[in-house]
């Protein structure tokens, strides 16, 4: 499949879109803080972003190789990062198209419990990395966390799994089918040594927070950090 060069807006329907539909749902409230003595704070506004489900999984895949422990990353299309272009950022930055992360995905409605997290992790790994991993290989990697608790209700559950590293060199194309979405087009996979991945986080080459958190937790678990 040809590589993606750009994301082109064919319509901006923001002005006529509802806040309570779509992949992200924005709720706007007026609220007060109710205090223990019965008094209340001044009224203020709250914006909350929900997805159709509250939880997601992020999967740290790793392998023991001749080079040491290696971890898998995936560069994929991220429109929110892409459309920073042309806007004034605090510091100079590149124009983004693909953003490097670990495999991740949102739970489906009705998926609850640890086994559901493992099944979702296995499905996402197969879709995004083309690897079949048994459910019992996935283990929690620390507790779940809120990426943006001030505005987003989503909580991310981090799992890890040791796998056999495919016999590939350098970067290589991810399975182009993915989940069937055009956002899956053009994704690229790469195995990095864990120390190299952490150095890339420190240097700002890997800018995804859940990815850095997973790598640092894995290094701590393996007593490499």
Automatic annotation (TrEMBL):
Domain Nudix hydrolase: 52-214
Superkingdom of source: Bacteria
Signal peptide residue numbers: none
Entries under SUPFAM superfamilies matching the protein: Nudix (SSF55811)
Protein's UniProt name: Nudix hydrolase domain-containing protein
